[in-house]
Amino acid sequence: MSADEVLGRSTYDFETVPQRRGTDSVKWDVAAGELPMWIADMDFATAPEVIDAMKRKVETGIFGYEWPQEDYFSAVSEWYSKIHGVHIPTEWMIFSTGVVPAISSIVRRASNVGDDVVVLTPVYNIFYNSILNNGRHVREVPLAYDSSLRRYSIDFTTLESALSGATTTLMILCNPQNPTGKVWTRGELSHIASLCSRYGVTLLSDEIHGDLVLGDETGEGPDYTPISTLEPALAAGTISVVSPSKTFNLAALHAATVIVPEEHLRALVNRGLNTDEVAEPNLLALPGSIAAYTHGEPWLAALKGQLRRNVAVVRDFLESQLPQVHLVEGESTYLLWLDCADVDLMSRADIAHDSSKLASLIRTSTGLILSDGAQYRGNGKDFLRMNIACPESLVREGLARLKKAFVQ
Ligand SMILES: Cc1ncc(COP(=O)(O)O)c(C=O)c1O
Predict the structure, then answer these.
(1) Is 67 left (phi over 0), alpha (psi -120 to 50) or beta?
(2) Closest protein CA for atom 14 of ligand 1
(3) How many CB atoms lie within 10 A of CB 191?
């Protein structure tokens, strides 16, 4: 990789602030003057090769029913070997219209109404919807948090106790973890999978953030481990879901791949996805995904350079100008997890360490929109989540507003 690629200095434009108001954007459907740094999409145009592939598709003018062919699954498999150095056979893969639709469908197939579904918290809040809306119970296993090192770890004793419950049939893991940015090691994943195997619990791994491991300032460091690449006896009880949607800012493409190594479990999942009608692509899903996976590597390298720079901007700003707020150093995602337990405002009677109230106050006083940590459960009520996948000028603007809200 060249020095420019490491730094993200490239032909790609990560500086111009896009005009997204009035474009049906969920993120930017906010009042004039407000600055949204919440929902997980990026204020960057996707890779030019993806746009070209979509244009070519639209120009055909024929948009009949489609079904993914070998070129789609090969593109996914080759991406995993090129980017992550692992082999994932195409026979293990099933197309789905998104990660959350696949998760909800798998909840319905791999567990029963009334069962317990284990999650390590704080975690992506939509997991709770997939569990609760289908009549299952959330069995929370809080991650242990070391507030001096600002590091999360798994309490395996509590996890084992939850997995061994008579009504526990499924665990949903976020690998890497949103919102903490934690990248689970192969050792941790093997430990989780072996406990799941011992207690007959299916392990569902959401790997949507897997391509966004940022590494150190030069991009070096351990990669994430796809759970399907654990030793075969452990991988057999797992299902994982991957997608180019976070990696390439393609959330509205509605495309994901479900990976199931063991054939009986795969047949069960396949039937569920088809019964739930979440297995057929829209007109852009296949060409968009194939182009991203086949040609998107240089763009992703440049993006990661920009994200590393943005993280450094936040780190420096907090240390020098807002030391009440502590950055939890995650290793992945563009979602920064801010420990606000020491913020003066948190001890005000009307806030009382409730980050949803804190986030509302920040929004009303400065227009900055952050995600409140409480919705992710666990110890999230002391945290805010900040999306820094935007031009550096917006990151700086967001930080200035945060300081304005906190330092009065
Ligand atoms: C962990 C995680 N899973 C899934 C999603 C959404 O996936 P999809 O849009 O494919 O349903 C998100 C979006 O933020 C996420 O963070």
Answers:
(1) beta
(2) 40
(3) 17
Residue 3 CA to ligand 1 center (angstroms) comes to 32
Q: Which architecture does CATH list for 3-47+297-406?
A: Alpha-Beta Complex (3.90)
Cβ–ligand 1 distance for 235 under 6 Å, the answer no
Q: Ligand 1 centroid vs 100 CA: distance in angstroms?
A: 6
Cβ 256 under 6 angstroms from ligand 1:
yes
Q: Where are the chain's structural domains?
A: 3-47+297-406, 51-294
Which is the closest atom of ligand 1 to the Cα of 123?
1
Fold type of domain 51-294: Aspartate Aminotransferase; domain 2 (3.40.640)
Q: How do strand 93-96 and strand 256-259 relate by DSSP bridges?
A: antiparallel
- Tens-binned pLDDT, residue by residue, of the chain (408 aa): 554 554 445 689 999 999 999 999 999 999 999 999 999 999 999 999 999 999 999 999 999 999 999 999 999 999 999 999 999 999 999 999 999 999 999 999 999 999 999 999 999 999 999 999 999 999 999 999 999 999 999 999 999 999 999 999 999 999 999 999 999 999 999 999 999 999 999 999 999 999 999 988 888 989 999 999 999 999 999 999 999 999 999 999 999 999 999 999 999 999 999 999 999 999 999 999 999 999 999 999 999 999 999 999 999 999 999 999 999 999 999 999 999 999 999 999 999 999 999 999 999 999 999 999 999 999 999 999 999 999 999 999 999 999 999 987
- Give the residue among 251, 297, 350, 299 at the shortest CA–CA distance from 27: 251
